[in-house]
Amino acid sequence: MNITLSCRQLSCGLAVALALAPGLSQAKDPVVFASYGGVWADTIKEVCGVPFEKETGIPVHMVATDNSIAQIRIQQMTKNVQWDIAPTEGDAVIIATENNWLEPLDWSYIDPEGKISEAGRMPTAIGAVAYSVAIAYRTDKVPEGKTFSGWKDFWDVKGFPGPRSLRNTPVENLEFALIADGVAPAEVYDVLATKEGMDRAFKKMDEIKEHITVWWSSGQQPPQMLATGNVYYATTFNGRVAPLQAQGVPVDISWNGAAIELSNYSIPKHAKNKEGALQFIKYCWNDPQRLAQIARKLPYSSFNDEMYQYLDDEYAKKLPTHPQNVDKQFNYNAEFWAKHRKQIQARWDRWRLQ
User: Fold this and answer.
1) Is the pLDDT of residue 22 over 60?
2) Which of 29, 138, 263, 283 counts the highest number of beta carbons within 10 A?
3) In-domain check, residue 24
4) Neighbouring C-alpha atoms within 13 Å toward the C-beta of 72
5) What is the CATH number of the domain that holds 53?
């Protein structure tokens, strides 16, 4: 009896030891992926997250945020890093890099053949996709006989009546205001960089302020409001429009005066699973077939041009960087906002309270 018991104890102990031995454990640390949620997060989970976990055994945990740079800062200041991959679009990547809040990316691993264009290769971030912040509008609410064509019409509340929505930020809105006031999209930052131009933009915002029924903060809000008819005209990410159209919601998008931006992703400094995050970044955003699959679900461009080999030519016209769309827009200037955001934000906050 004693001998049998000892053998059982030995077997149990050996099993525990094997389970805990480095490299033999079946459980792998997850990659915690932060995004702005909604259809984008669902798409990344389906196209990248689920197959990545099946192929590597590394779970991907999706979490949502509506203010990535603030959360990155808090996590770095408290030394409590919760994310392995974080969105760093716009001026966020510049601010976070300057403050040493991001890990440098190993491009020799992510893209050893150099297939990703220079625009998508940053020292601390990968350009996952290019997207546009544009006007989405209910086609059934446009007055009969009229064509909605852009920012001048957005500001024309008499000619195009109905509830409107803008994002609660000076970023992009001041550029849009100048375009509505007659500034060419290619010249918005030249004008905005002057005191007179800044005053002009805020003065134009005064005209539309009382007609904005919702100042949105989450990317999910505009499509929800358009679907229910709570707003007729709203800024939104271009990729949010196609799913509404697929559901039969009468909406369309205006590319005129839209802002082309990069959706960057980075690994926060001291991320708990840096290695897994690097694997995921390469797996998701440097595989042309997977990028094409993302683009078919959401009309966002990528930075590996081999993607276009797997896309229908007609569908490619829905992408923001397609030749028929790109010249109507302006390129978001992340450097401008990184340099001036603090003082402009303070003025914006005062203006919103007036």
Assistant:
1) no
2) 263
3) no
4) 32
5) 3.40.190.10
